[in-house]
UniProtKB/TrEMBL annotation:
Gene3D superfamilies: Ubiquitin Conjugating Enzyme (3.10.110.10). Signal peptide: none annotated. It holds the Pfam family UQ_con. Coiled coil: none annotated. This is UBC core domain-containing protein. Residues 5-173 form the UBC core domain.
């Protein structure tokens, strides 16, 4: 797909997201730049970030879908997988990127189950956004951007939860 065809692919992805919205997630492409999306995640009630709304920019490259989009959080969050600059550590956006990802989680087991059941195949960006939402709502000490926060989550979960709640109240609520 050439750079000239990327906008039509992006329009298709946006259409898919509009028809089947992801609960708790909003996506608004910039009027003057289809390659830049303003997004937000409303944390789930069972998340350490309950009550918070976290904003991020999703930038699609000109050679999308052959190159992964980049994600930059603009709301501060105390999270082992999101660093101070707002970058998120998600393998599917780095070394595991494949333009053919098209299922709700991008995981091979769900891929096989979905194929077996002839399930609805979701758009690539729906998968990416669901993975980001899952990562935000379910912090894990594995593959962290912030090793100290990951260690705290692993070794002193109550302290991690208290700090995450404090940061959410300070930075992600109105």
């Amino acid at each position: 797909m050439t750079a000239l065809r990327a906008p039509s692919r992006i329009q298709k992805e946006l259409g898919d997201i509009t028809r089947k919205p992801i609960p708790g997630l909003t996506v608004e492409p910039q009027e003057d730049n289809l390659f830049l999306w303003k997004c937000s995640i409303k944390a789930s009630n069972d998340s350490p970030y309950k009550g918070g709304t976290f904003h991020f920019n999703l930038t699609l490259p000109e050679n999308f879908p052959f190159k992964a989009p980049s994600v930059q959080f603009t709301t501060k969050i105390y999270h082992p997988g999101i660093n101070e600059e707002g970058s998120i550590c998600v393998p599917v956006l780095r070394d595991q990127w494949k333009p053919a990802i098209s299922l709700s989680s991008g995981m091979s087991l769900l891929f096989l189950i979905s194929r077996m059941l002839n399930h609805f195949v979701r758009s690539l960006m729906t998968v990416v956004l669901e993975i980001i939402s899952e990562k935000v709502n379910n912090p894990s000490p594995d593959d962290p951007y912030e090793p100290e926060i990951a260690a705290q989550l692993k070794d002193d979960k109550s302290r991690f939860l208290a700090t995450a709640k404090e940061w959410t109240k300070k930075h992600a609520t109105s």
